[in-house]
Sequence to fold (75 residues):
Amino acid sequence: MNYGDTLVGSIAILFSIISAFISLGPWTRPYQLRTISLVNERFGRTTARLVWMIVAIAAFVAGIAILADIRPAYT
Fold:
């Protein structure tokens, strides 16, 4: 594993932690992002929180995969 993989994996995990806190916290500013704002207007705050949690889980899985050096077969 090189230092670039460690950096990118760590940043992905850090972003997943921040996204999880956004989905659980009382903040309103992150819900003003364009895509999340559209979800919030159309489906409500609960669904927007769910979208933030899905982003958090996806970023965490990507970070773990990067740190575990999991690569596609074609690389």
About this structure: The chain has one domain: 3-67.
